[in-house]
Amino acid sequence: MDAYRDQYATLFMNGEKVRLLAVSTDPIDALASWARDADYPFTFLSDTDGAVGKAFGVFEPKYKADNRTLFVVAPGGKISYVMAPFREIDPTAYTELATAIGSAMGDR
Would the pTM of this model clear 0.90, i.e. be above it? Predict the structure, then answer.
C-alpha cells in the first residue's frame, strides 16, 4: 500500500479524476488506524464478511480474505482492466496500472 501512497499524485491524479478504493476483510477500526498511521490519502472499505470479494470472484474461503486483485473501472462503470494477482512489489505493475488508468480515462 505504500507504493500506492507514494505514487498517488501521478497514478491517481491526486484523486481528482481517479478514485482508489482499497477493499479488505479487515475490520474497519483496524483499517482506519492503519490508514491514519501510514498517512494513506485514499479510501479503505471494510468487507468483513467477504461479500464484495465474493461478488467479484476474488474471495478465498480457505483464508477468509480477498485475494490481491486490482480492478480499473472506467468512468461509465465498466471494469476495463483486471490484474490478478496485483504484483505490488513489482515496479512494472505500476507502469501497467498507469497505462490501464489512462486507457480507461481515454487519455492513452
Answer: no
